[in-house]
Amino acid sequence: MKNKIIAALLVPMTMLGSCSKSFIDRPSLDGTTLSNYYNTAEEVRGLTSTLYGLPWSGFENRAMDAIGDVMAGNEYSGGNDDPPFSNFTFASTSVRIADTWKVFYKIGGWTSEYIKALEEKKANGGNASFIDPAIAECHFFRGTVYFYIARIWGHAPIVTDPGGAALSGNFNIPRYFKDDVLRFALEELQLAETGLPESDPVKGRLTKYSAKGMMAKLYLYKKDYANAKAKAEEVIASGKYDLFPDYGAMFNTSANNNNIESLFSIQHQLTGNPWGSASQKQPDRGPSNMQTSEASMWELYIPSMDMKNAYEFGDLRRKGSMMEHGWSHPTWKPQGSDPTYNAFMANGYKYDTLQPVGQGGQKNTTHSNIAKYVVGPGKAFGGETVIGMNTGINTMMLRYADVLLIYAEAVLGDAASTSDASALQAFNKVRARAGLMAKESITMEDILKERRVEFAFEGDFWFDIQRQGFAKAKQIIEAQNRGTYEVPMYVTFSEQYMYLPIPAGEILQDPELAKDPVPYY
């Protein structure tokens, strides 16, 4: 494999903008940097700040939708790159797959080099009081990305010394068994749990409960119900988290970034940004009739017909997740060139599928738009600051609602149903916020349905389908209407699509990736 090393010297609060298709991508942290820098907590936290924002962009923007929601039957998409994830015809040349690989191995490479550099700094007299928590942050990110890698590709490479691999010239890195990749991810999260603080004065920074929550999710994926229950219970018992009272408001303004429900979020800001990036989810989701001189919107991803049918009557999450006929936001007052449109929107944005397009109407192929991560038409039009494609809203990757549902499912385990009081308390707490009646007994079907509507359009449901095993996944997917309002579409699902193929370009550079996996441990 030909290595394309990032050639920038990393300094605090400065982002690395270069990247590579190679999974041995790494930053340059030389001896001069280590001797002269990382002497203060601010300098060290500046280093790890680079992991919270910018390097996630290639996955967070589009690939996360394609894999987590289009494949899961939650979203419908046009164009050329995304429909193969709906009808299961994607190939190893897919740009979404290549982008995802690049992001996760980039983060894996950066964290590996950061850990190595910080451990060297500490060995040479660096202050462990702020270096150790930074190393733990790196372990969290490395564990999290390898958890994604295991779920997306199954058998995959594990690279902990990208710099060493680059210098040795040995680029024949094999795939390791999926179970070993999951074990590696878990061990990383365990190290993060040990080293991260109970709390952090800066909102959005990781704590040991971020690690506990991610471990609970990984244990659940492995069907290790006892440990999933234990870790979820530790988060719940901490009393540090709760459900944010307004479900929709978590997703339509950056004012609620890093709220009481967030255990781990990709960090975004428009100005004064220590994280290095803004969110670009809005333009791919927002309705085109809300586009203004400040805010770009082209609705690449819209709710699927099957997703629209998944909600119970009266579920408040529906309005917080989707825009449909009658949906409104009174404070948003977009303006266009047509006086009729401006008159229609004078008292606030209205989603209307009957009004003519151009005069305020909005009517796409599923008669709906995604509301999550759409923050409006811009500051001059009654919303918050938007700069073209860019907004300041964070992307929540792990929420307290997930921990509650993990706990309920872990208590259920392999049983057909449960009426356990603690499981019902956790499960019904999520339903109560949604305005729904409590259940007196729950099954796996109940939990899957609850997870689907709770985390709709958050890039997660595919992994819930996948972890049910092929037979159940096939049943779920083939029952879904993946078409449009006018033309239903049903697909045939085969086992080869349970995991994504390794990008073709990576195999060309490293033929070992095409061979059978080998043990890592």
The N- to C-terminal Cα distance equals 23 Å
- What's the pLDDT, averaged over the residues? 93
Strand content: under 5%
Main sheet properties: 2 strands, antiparallel
SS summary, helix count: 20
Report low-confidence residues grouped into runs of 5 or more. Answer: 1-21
Order of helices and strands: HHHEHHHHHHHEHEHHEEHEEEHHHHHH
Helix content: 40-55%
Q: Structural class, from secondary structure content?
A: mainly alpha
Strand order of the largest sheet: 1-3
β-strand number: 8
Evaluate the radius of gyration: 23 Å
Q: What does this protein look like?
A:
The structure is a single chain. With 521 residues, the chain is mainly alpha-helical. The protein has a domain at 268-393. 42% of the residues lie in helices and 5% in strands. The chain contains 20 helices and eight strands. The protein has helices spanning 31-36, 41-49, 57-70, 83-87, 95-123, 128-153, 162-168, 178-195, 208-221, 225-238, 282-285, 305-308, 317-321, 339-344, 400-412, 421-433, 444-454, 461-466, 470-478, 504-509; strands at residues 75-77, 262-266, 301-303, 322-323, 328-329, 349-350, 369-370, 395-399. The protein starts with 30 loop residues before the first helix and ends in a 12-residue tail after the last helix.
